[in-house]
Amino acid sequence: MSPFNKKFAVTWTRAFSYRSISIEEESKLSTDCRLSLSRMLSINSKLMAMFDKNPFDFIVFSTFNLPMTVPPRPWIDRGTGGPLYTAGQDIIRNMFEFKSVRLNDEMRQRIQSPAQGRPVFDALNQLGSTPWVINEPMLDTLKTVFGQSGCKESEPLLEKLGIPMRHDTFDVPDFVREFGNVKKEDVDVEKFRRYAKKKAEAVKMRNESNSLWCWMQYRVVLADHFRGQTLFFPHNMDFRGRVYPLSPYLSHMGDDVNRCILKFAKSQPLGSHGFDWLKLHCVNLTGTMKRASVADRMVEAERLIPSILDSARNPLNGEKWWMSSDEPWQTLAACVEIENAMKYGSDVASFPSQLPVHQDGSCNGLQHYAALGRDNEGGVQVNLTQCETPNDVYSDVAQRVEQKRKQDEESNGEDRDVALKLREALPQNVPRKVIKQTVMTTVYGVTMYGAVLQIKRQLKAMDIPGEDAAIFARYLARKTFASLNDAFTSSMALKDWFRLIAKGASDLMKTVEWVTPLGLPVVQPYCRLLERKSKLVLVPIPMKQVDAFPPNFVHSLDSTHMMLTSLNCANRGITFAAVHDCFWTHANSVDEMNQICRQQFVSLHSQPIVEQCSEWFKTTYLTPRIQKILPPSEVDRFADIFTVKVKQGELDIEKVKDSVYFFS
Questions:
Q1: Model's pTM, two decimal places?
Q2: Is the pLDDT of residue 21 over 90?
Q3: Cα gap 549→543, rounded to integer Å
Q4: Quick one: which H or E segment has residue 52?
């Protein structure tokens, strides 16, 4: 090589590489954590530095992932059509973990007539045709706050408001700064380990914050781009019928920031009760009065009017009351709407409001379980019946667990020692937060093992050592499940039966499937590819089919309830949007939406859903062909499995119509 070539020789470095990342996991065999290595794509730090020095002038988004500025093309029979005018789309989301299953084809093959499933497709069309606009005053405030993300002094404020810090505000330990100009071999091993650990943690925090910062940047940029335009969010659904907007960046189905920068495009006068609903909505968002009555919340709203007005007029330089809310950005949006309405004085009823008012289901999954099992006691706890103040199922279960702990302490049973030892570590009553996640995920099929991990994490957060936390978590998990069975006797028996019939279907080497009350065929896609007789075939994964059926079945019911509410609101000309079990409408139509929501829940659960499920499994899995193949004793055994024997409780489902806190 010539001297010239040597002088200008280039050393190439890989821009991308694989790195093994250690992830801390819980072990089934030990109370300690174990490390799992995962391979992830790593970007060369020099390339990242080049990006920092030369930032892109534009962010390019795929149009498939953006809101539409014209009404979307409707979904039609069999779920064909779709929002784009130049190409068709899949109505069921194709998820990577189910890539071997053609979800849309499986659904369409099971549709028996052109009319089947039309209410589902109509509901998606209704949700996608709701027009929205950017809430520009909120966007301006958000941009001002987001602009401070590069200032370290603003971190306490930004953390409170859920705004991530920019990556260059993080101080990553440097070797020379830490040890001076010495060789690595000359540094004390223990000191170097501490330095390496500290640096790794700092890099991890910086990278995580950078990812969140970029995600926030996407939303701010898109909202700014769509200023002054009418937006539409076309929806599709997962295989269970749960609906989602197609736009992953900007839509109402997101966090507090996403929701605050959107409002309905069409305004509606507040009317006689709309202003009260605006104030109640503002108080609800703070999260401080979840157990209070509506009357008490209204009194609190009146007391807070000066703070609400100050927040609207001086969001960043005033008292900043809105920042103490559970949902600060949405609270500020409500403050601004209230302040604008109050400018109308005695004519507040004519104020044209665009802010969506939310009504949330009270532990909606358990509401459906209680309705299916007609559990009166459980129904009371999840507000299916009228009561003076809202009940809280998590507090009720925590109280039941505490009562069982006291009984164990006073008995001579096998749990006495654990109960007494737990009392030393946790002298107060069992906190609500310890069992909340387990109660919440019961409807999603959480196992005993999963419940133990959930409770153990809460106990560790309360500074209870890992070994003791594992023992206490197993004890509390058992008591939590027992307490749930006390309140939701028929519901939990139904859940066990759902698992039993799913196992029956799996034993027959079939996937679990059913049809929702609105006619949508649902097929659980938990399968794996196997080679049989030189052919690739999809074989159900029994454990996943069994574990997933109870939560998926209930999810298909809560989606059905939302769709029924959506269709009936559209029929009455009411603006409607939803985030699963959180229903949105204008302030002047909340009362009417609430009436529709309750009526449709009662109508849904007045159908013999459980009996229909039993008959479906018998006719679908015990076909004449199967009955010829199986011995008669096996046919009888499966028929017995598919026959529901759970005795329903005494809940009067009609009482839901009078329940103030069913959705509130």
A1: 0.89
A2: no
A3: 10
A4: helix 45-53
Distance CA 426, CA 435 (A): 14
Average pLDDT over residues 274-302: 95
- Give me the pLDDT at residue 53, please: 83
pLDDT tier, 52 (very low <50, low <70, confident <90, very high otherwise): confident
What is the DSSP code (8-state) at residue 131?
Answer: -
pLDDT at 461 over 80: yes
Contact yes or no for 227/134 (Cβ under 8 A): yes
Q: Is the pLDDT of residue 538 over 80?
A: yes
Q: What angle do CA 449, 450, 453 make, to 5 degrees?
A: 90
CA dist 226 and 4 (Å) reads 54
Distance CA 399, CA 383 (A): 17
Instruction: Report d(CA 282, CA 260) in Å as an integer.
Output: 12
Which amino acids are annotated catalytic? 360, 436, 581
* Rounded Cα gap, residues 210 and 217, in angstroms: 10
Strand, helix or coil for residue 33: strand
Q: Is the distance from CB of 155 to CB of 165 less than 8 angstroms? A: yes
Tell me the backbone φ, ψ of residue 522, rounded to 5 degrees: -120, 130
Cα distances (angstroms) measured from residue 152 to each of 147, 149, 201? 12, 7, 18
Which helix (H) or strand (E) covers residue 470, if one does?
A: helix 466-487
Digit-coded pLDDT (tens) for 184-208: 887 788 888 888 888 888 888 888 8
Rounded to whole angstroms, the Cα distance separating 109 from 102 reads: 11
3-state secondary structure of 421: helix
Whether the CB-CB separation of 354 and 584 falls below 8 Å is answered with no
For residue 650, which of 361, 362, 384, 392 has the smallest C-alpha distance? 384
Separation of alpha carbons 122 and 143, rounded Å: 37
Cross-strand bridge partners of residue 523: 513
Structure tokens at 346: 């005695």
Q: Is 515 helix (H, G, I), strand (E, B) or coil?
A: strand
Q: Please, what's the b/e burial string for 526-547 (b: 16 or more CB within 10 A of its CB; e: otherwise)?
A: bbeeeeeeeeeeeebbeebbbb
Reduce the DSSP state of residue 179 to 3 states and report it. helix
pLDDT of residue 128: 96
- What is the 3-class SS of 238-293, one letter each residue? CCCCCEEECCCCCCCCCCHHHHHCEEECCCEECCCCHHHHHHHHHHHHHCCCCCCC
**Count of residues making up the chain:** 664
- For residue 561 the two structure tokens come to 């309830």
Average pLDDT, the chain: 90
| Residue 7 one-letter amino acid | K
Read off the pLDDT of each residue in 488-513 and give the average, rounded to a whole number. Answer: 93
Contact predicate 239/311, CB 8 Å = no
Give 642's contacts (C-beta < 8 A, 6+ positions apart).
501, 504, 614, 617, 618, 621, 622
Residue with tokens 């229903």: 583
